[in-house]
Every structure is written in C-alpha cells, then in structure tokens.
Amino acid sequence: MFYRPEQGHGLPHNPFNAIVTPRPIAWVSSRDGKGVNNLAPYSFFNAVAYVPPQVMFASTSSKPDQDGTKDSIANIRETGVFCVNVVEYAMRDAMNASSQTLGKDVDEFAHAGVAAAECETIACARVANAPASLECRMTQIVTLAGEANFLVLGEVVGVHMRDDTLRDGRFDVTTFQPLSRLGYRDYAQVTDLFELARPDD
C-alpha cells in the first residue's frame, strides 16, 4: 500500500502514529503565571542533544480556553520553564487521567491524584514519585505547519532520578518499566533489554 497524506489513506484510522513507534511519553508539568499547575502527556517527545542536554516535545491541538494551543504551551510561553516526567507502567492510569481536556484553571495533579513536588532549579512542580524528572528551560517554541502544531525545545538544567532506579551505577529502566506510546489506543511497557556493541567499540 502507498498513500499520499494530502489525499488520505482510506483506512478506518490514521496509520501514521502507529508507524512511528514506540515513542517515549513526556509527562509535561508546567505552571501558569497565577500559580496553577498543569500536567499533561505528550508522545511526540525525545532527547535531542547531550551537551548541553536538550529535549523536545510537540503539541498538536488546541482547546477553547487557550488561544490556539494547549495549557502546556501557553504556560511555557508565559514562564519559560517546564518539567518532563518519565511515565512508569504503575502510573499509566494517572497519566491517562491527566490527558482529559479540562479548564485551564484546573490542576491536573489534583485531578489525577498525582503527588507534586517543587523543582530545584525552576519555578515548576514535578511528579514527586516519577522514576526521573527533567527540569527544563525553554530555548525555542517553533511553529510547525498545520493548525495548532508547536515544537518546544528545552535545555535540561536539573535531573531527578528515584533512588530505586539506580543499579550498579546505571539508570535501569527494568526497575520501573517505562510506558511507551504506540498507535491508536495502544501502549507498551519495556520489560526486556539486550545489548549491541557498535562496530567502533
């Protein structure tokens, strides 16, 4: 099968986000200028550089009470900071609950029953018991083609790792089984690892 996106695919559901998988999930926490916390998951997410460490996530829709975007983007525009929290399998239901479209004055931490803690280097909340959290200062917000598509780039200025995730000096994902996004309504958890040595090693 071949299709041109502008002409449609003819399938019951869009296959694009099922093709680009698995994708890590950024559970992005932010805070508006009035002090209201926000927490929302984004699966267009990844790390993009080592030195300095940098991450990106993209928001691809809007809500009626924000001007052509979502709460996360509006908050980051206002404050210049955000935190990316890693989602473990055990927190899948809370993550899903935080994805509900709510008013901009609603705190998703409270709505989803997620404990919040203050970040160390930025004025923002983080998921208190997340396996890892990355405190970020926004470096760019890029407007992408299409309606309400925005790419957020940030420099990681603080890193939290839960103590039980460290084994033999490594951050061990098998200790918490990170959640990844597949297509449609599908998710996966990481349970098994294998190593490949690069030819130059």
Map the helices and strands.
Blueprint: H1 16-19, E1 23-24, E2 26-31, E3 37-42, E4 45-49, E5 54-59, H2 71-79, E6 81-86, H3 92-97, H4 108-112, E7 116-118, E8 125-127, E9 132-143, E10 150-161, E11 166-167, E12 170-171, E13 179-181, E14 187-189
Antiparallel strand pairs: 1-13, 2-3, 2-6, 4-5, 5-10, 6-9, 7-8, 9-10, 11-12, 13-14
Describe this structure in words.
Strand 13 and strand 14 form a beta hairpin. The chain has a single domain, classed as Pnp Oxidase, Chain A (Roll), CATH 2.30.110. The chain has 4 helices and 14 strands. It has helices at residues 16-19, 71-79, 92-97, 108-112; strands spanning 23-24, 26-31, 37-42, 45-49, 54-59, 81-86, 116-118, 125-127, 132-143, 150-161, 166-167, 170-171, 179-181, 187-189. Strands 3-2-6-9-10-5-4 form a 7-stranded antiparallel β-sheet, covered by helices on one side. With 201 residues, the chain is mainly beta. The relative contact order is 0.20.
Classify the fold: give the CATH topology.
Pnp Oxidase, Chain A
Instruction: Give helix % range.
Output: 10-25%
How far apart the termini lie comes to 39 Å
Summarize model confidence as the mean pLDDT.
97
Give the DSSP E fraction (strand runs of 2 or more residues).
Answer: 35-45%
Quick structural overview:
With 201 residues, the protein is mainly beta. The protein is built from four helices and 14 strands.
Annotation keywords:
single chain; 201 residues; mainly beta; Pnp Oxidase, Chain A; 4 helices; globular
